[in-house]
Predict the structure.
Amino acid sequence: MKTATKALVVFSGGQDSTTCLAQALADFDSVETVTFDYGQRHVIELEQARILAQISGATEHHQIDMQWLGRLTENSLTRPDIPITHTNGQLPSTFVDGRNLFFLSVAAVLAKQRGIQVIYTGVCETDFSGYPDCRDSFIQSLTQTLKLAIEYPYEIRTPLMWLTKAETVQLMAQLGKLDWYAETHTCYEGLRPACGKCPACTLRLKGFADAGIPDPLPYL
Amino acid sequence: MKTATKALVVFSGGQDSTTCLAQALADFDSVETVTFDYGQRHVIELEQARILAQISGATEHHQIDMQWLGRLTENSLTRPDIPITHTNGQLPSTFVDGRNLFFLSVAAVLAKQRGIQVIYTGVCETDFSGYPDCRDSFIQSLTQTLKLAIEYPYEIRTPLMWLTKAETVQLMAQLGKLDWYAETHTCYEGLRPACGKCPACTLRLKGFADAGIPDPLPYL
């Protein structure tokens, strides 16, 4: 059932946050999106986020300059000179220390300015990425910290927290917005059509295969 | 008793954080300082912080560009067009939503990069400023959030949390560093010698008077 209040979606233009956006629009009458420009490897993410915000009917789309975050930390997601590696048991080299801490804290300041209390984020414990700032325990702790820091009644909703990639695809099918996935960006190589071979594309394609639903995204 | 490990002091060049710096140097062999350039009304703060870091014998002084924080929020401390007002019962107009949340989170990322676990900050519940992100409950919650976000064993020390301004001055006398106060910046008007009349100067002078210790800072 929709409520008359508003929600803000932390929105990367990727598959997970686009599913969150669909869920938020099912839950709220008015939904705004916020995308962070933190020196991503691929500017295409920002462009797809803008396109998807428009397609979805989000009331307002915010893009916030967070280039300082890329300068603060050293990692391969923001520094083209560091190769992307995936290791077992260790954090992948794409990890930005406390990235979701900063994204959600900035989103919280924006939300208060916009009179919004509910923030959606697509973080997920079940994708085995090993990012500590994607865990439910972190989100619960951060919610409390934000309430104390800003004295504002925040609620952070994480509809994907316990879903597999396949279940996320199935959720999107239930929400009737599978076609939005054609505009989402996943490929670590920054290609569109996507490469279909990098770890991100491989994980994405496995999710669709497991869900028994075809991926509307064009691949090379 | 000093430990062989290192500490990081969140350092504004004001009276409180200079007292924290003296305490940290009494507790640790090696202490680094970090100052945030967030579009302060008075650049003199940054300069005095640099001078004090040098005088104190801090191992390293970091200045981090946080101009984005000033752009994110609207308040009189960073916007010369908004007059400074002090009201009873409401937050003063100098409040930046979540300022200490962002300062301490950035300090935490820096601390980890420098191999430091202990962070000092001069926040204080007893100065009646009404800032929610100066309270002990916030610091406790943030410590937990940072540990979860970054998976690093942070400790945040707040030696001034329960001290009055007079007790802070007395602490500095015990630490034998009262002369450092001559270089600290307090005045809201940005004057050096200080105006002695603005709310910040008045509060400072009352603290010295209550402590029965003369303020070494030159006044107009």
The mean pLDDT of chain B is 88. Chain B touches chain A at residues 64-66, 68, 71-73, 97-98, 100-102, 105-106, 108-110, 112-113, 132-133, 135, 137-138, 141-142, 144-146, 148-151 (CB under 8 Å).
